[in-house]
Specification:
424 residues, mainly alpha, three-stranded mixed sheet, two-stranded antiparallel ribbon, 14 helices
Length: 424
């Protein structure tokens, strides 16, 4: 006998299941909720939306994530090298940031790219993985965002108050609260989606018979995610993961920029044109970090604010094809930009820090190159300062300039140690 419809509920006999067991995937499974829809009432996703999904998340996203995975692995290997000459606390924060970004990129490929590249993965694996992939990728994203803030805080303290001694227990004073917060804050994400059995039928108006067409496992919003009170969490998420980090990074960046500018003015008499360019570059890179973060996270914040706005002012949300297509494209762009934000850290490191470039080169290309030009600059300055004064003032002046050009000489190493270790 065919499945029957009674008051909108689908009833299936065990005899029918036994007969159709080789043709059905999930229809006779009691472990998952069943969602029934008439094929005549189901809207189809536009070809343009499918094409956008494929080229953005199926082609571009894995390329960006692949580059980011290689870059973050390289960053971890370089940062664990003793020649990097940074404070252990700062190194641990940067390693944690690279790990969060690495985890995010791996999960992004599993969550966004593979469903567009493999039909088998999309139909047979993805519906069961998504309830776990979703919270894990948000944990990684939360950790990455707030570890970036920890990097800015660490840098701000060492630049604004370089002689302030704060015992951070090798950076774990920053990292432990971030790890704990990332886990606890994203617990609701474990209840946002669930795996369901979607059954397509062809109902006959003149009878209660429902002709089975197809069935398959797929993911769907859970009842928790659809509850009106859950919008409170969505609103908080817009602030916690969007507006607040942007504000904090902007403030910290301004403080760092002002401190660097004051230091430049104070040491102007000892600085060469090369040192001036490097100091300006450092301030520019710090500003660029904030700009990259703001640009990459803005689409996600816009999507969250749009959902909040539609919940408050428009209920129910109108199902318009153009609006849905625009939201789908904006979502894809958001995924691409956040993946890009997680992939560019090594570029910032290479552009900013002489030591990082040197260790990276020696790690992957053999022995360290001889940077004769930097050593020559250091020697020339030492001779110049020696002509101006004697004794302790010579040592301090040479040490200050050497720190500005990122060159460590043996006779000034002790006096520079505190600043040079955080010159990243």
């Amino acid at each position: 006998s065919q499945p029957t419809l009674v008051d909108g509920q689908l009833y299936i006999s065990s005899e029918w299941c036994e007969k159709m067991k080789d043709r059905t995937m999930c229809m006779c499974d009691d472990k998952h909720d069943t969602v029934v829809s008439d094929i005549n009432d189901v809207g189809l996703t536009s070809d343009l939306a499918l094409e956008v999904d494929y080229y953005t998340e199926g082609v571009l996203l894995p390329i960006i994530c692949g580059v980011g995975i290689c870059g973050n692995i390289a960053s971890i290997l370089v940062l664990t090298n003793k020649d990097i000459d940074l404070k252990p606390s700062f190194v641990n924060i940067l390693i944690c940031l690279a790990f969060y970004d690495l985890l995010f990129e791996i999960l992004a490929i599993l969550m966004y790219s593979l469903p567009n590249l493999s039909l088998t993965y999309k139909d047979s694996v993805f519906p069961f993985f998504l309830p776990y992939l979703l919270p894990l990728i948000h944990i990684a994203l939360t950790g990455s965002v707030y570890t970036t803030i920890a990097v800015a805080v660490e840098r701000c303290i060492t630049v604004v108050a370089p002689f302030t001694s704060i015992k951070s227990f090798h950076g774990f004073l920053y990292l432990c609260p971030i790890i704990l917060f990332s886990l606890l804050y994203n617990i609701p994400k474990f209840f946002e989606v669930q795996t369901r059995c979607f059954v397509s039928i062809n109902a006959i108006n003149s009878s209660s018979d429902a002709h089975w067409v197809s069935d398959a496992y797929a993911w769907d919003r859970s009842d928790v995610r659809s509850h009106p009170n859950y919008m409170t969490y969505i609103t908080a998420n817009c602030v916690v993961m969007g507006l607040l980090p942007m504000f904090l990074l902007s403030v910290l960046n301004c403080l760092i920029f002002r401190a660097v500018s004051r230091a430049h003015a104070h040491h102007a008499s000892l600085m060469s044109s090369n040192a001036h360019r490097r100091d300006s570059t450092m301030a520019t890179v710090l500003t660029t970090i904030v700009l990259i973060f703001v640009v990459c996270h803005t689409p996600k914040a816009v999507l969250n604010m749009y959902e909040i706005w539609t919940h408050i002012f428009i209920s129910p949300v109108p199902e318009e094809e153009d609006i849905n297509l625009l939201l789908d494209i904006l979502t894809n762009i958001s995924h691409l930009l956040i993946a890009t934000n997680s992939s560019v850290n090594i570029v910032v490191y290479v552009l900013k820090d002489f030591k990082f470039r040197q260790v990276l080169w020696s790690f992957f290309c053999g022995p360290k190159p001889q940077f004769l030009r930097n050593n020559t600059l250091s020697n020339k300055l030492s001779r110049k300062v020696g002509k101006q004064d004697n004794g302790v003032s010579n040592h301090v002046a040479a040490s200050n300039f050497t720190n500005m050009v990122d060159v460590t000489t043996q006779d000034s190493q002790d006096s520079e140690n505190k600043v040079l270790q955080t010159d990243f």
